[in-house]
Amino acid sequence: MTANRRVHRAVSGVALLITVAACTRREQAPAPPTPRVAERSSGPVTARLIVDPPEVQLDRDTLLTIQVSAPSNFAVRLPAVEGRVEGLATAGLFDREPRREGSQRVYERCVRLTPHPAPRHRIAPMAIRWQDPASGEGERWFPTPPLVLAVRPLVSEKPRGVADIFGPVRVRPGVATLLTYTLVLLLLLAAACAPWLLGRRLQRYLKLRRLSPKERALWELEALLARDLPGKGRVKEFYFDLTMIVRRYIERAHGVRAPEQTTEEFLQAVSQDSRFAPQVVARLRDFLSAADLVKYAAVRPEPQAVTAAIATARHYIETDAVEQSRRQQEGHGAG
């Protein structure tokens, strides 16, 4: 008998704990929000707007119920919702069967509204039309009250006592992002260096324009020698540049368009020009003919031949400039 009582007491205690826990959970569960109700009357007719939930929630639809209560012998017309909502789209509607509540008849139109992000969510006034056949008067109407609905945020505030488990994590940029940053940086550097480079090129151009034909040709010759093309195995390129230095000098100093002529055309032109002595034409012929063998016949010159070609070009430029200066002085003296 004692054992049975102990078992009974234990079962009763467990049941009591379960009941208390259930009641505690039930008390902690939030109550559903009360629908928002707006009401307006005109004589014996009353219109109510019922909005459920009372706040706009972007992740769920809003149910709008238009409820009109009027005497049972009145004719009632429910309003259209199209064009009367802002920030909400009509997703469907239906009318319930009118029902009697004492001497009144209740009409209901249920409209499902889908919210979307907007500056505000509003239900504009709608016309409730009614008529009393017994009075003999025409149809009358009155507007429903306007409603501006608040928007409930999708994410509620963080509950108290809840903290982040991890701190902020640095996300490394991807390869495409790094390439984009590198390209932008290179473009910025190019834009910053472009004025400086253009300035240097312009300064160099103006400096060369102020040089005499002799000074410019000797400057070009020193720049060509500094490149050391023969030492790099680029002999053909070296001879092209060397002969062009001589041809450009002749064009600047004597007005003969030597760079645009073939060797034969050039030699024919200078042999008929009194400013070029026969021995000078002979040296130019030997110099250009030897260079053509390297440029066009793939002849590999010895280092001594390269040195001799450089000396020939330098000697011609210097002596021709001296001879030209002498002729100019004689011309001024004769004048």
Secondary-structure blueprint:
Layout: H1 2-28, E1 36-42, E2 45-52, E3 56-57, E4 62-71, E5 75-77, E6 85-86, E7 88-95, E8 99-101, E9 104-115, E10 121-123, E11 127-131, E12 140-143, E13 147-149, E14 151-152, H2 175-210, H3 213-227, H4 235-254, H5 263-271, H6 278-296, H7 303-334
Parallel strand pairs: 3-14
Antiparallel strand pairs: 1-2, 2-4, 4-9, 5-11, 6-10, 7-9, 8-9, 10-13, 11-12
Helix pairs in contact: 3-4, 3-7, 4-6, 4-7, 5-6, 6-7
Protein traits:
single chain, 335 residues, alpha+beta, Immunoglobulin-like, six-stranded antiparallel β-sheet, 7 helices, 14 strands, 21% strand, rod-shaped
Unreliable stretches, pLDDT < 50, 5 or more residues? none
Share in helix? 40-55%
Give the number of DSSP strands: 14
Q: What count of structural domains?
A: 2
Instruction: Tell me, rounded to a whole number, the average pLDDT.
Output: 83
End-to-end CA span: 157 Å
The radius of gyration computed from the alpha-carbon positions, rounded to a whole number of angstroms, is 52 Å
Determine the strand fraction and express it as a percent band: 15-25%
Shape: rod-shaped
- Report the total helices: 7
Task: Characterize the biggest β-sheet.
Answer: 6 strands, antiparallel
Walkthrough of the structure:
With 335 residues, the protein is of the alpha+beta class. The chain folds into two domains: 36-150, Immunoglobulin-like (Sandwich); 212-334. Helix content is 47%, strand content 21%. The chain is built from seven helices and 14 strands. The protein has helices at residues 2-28, 175-210, 213-227, 235-254, 263-271, 278-296, 303-334, and strands at residues 36-42, 45-52, 56-57, 62-71, 75-77, 85-86, 88-95, 99-101, 104-115, 121-123, 127-131, 140-143, 147-149, 151-152. The strands form four sheets. Strands 1, 2, 4, 7, 8 and 9 form a six-stranded antiparallel sheet that branches. It has a three-stranded antiparallel sheet with strand order 5-11-12, with no helix packed on it. Strands 6-10-13 form a three-stranded antiparallel sheet, with no helix packed on it. Helix 4 packs antiparallel against helix 6 (278-296), helix 5 packs antiparallel against helix 6 and helix 6 packs antiparallel against helix 7 (303-334).
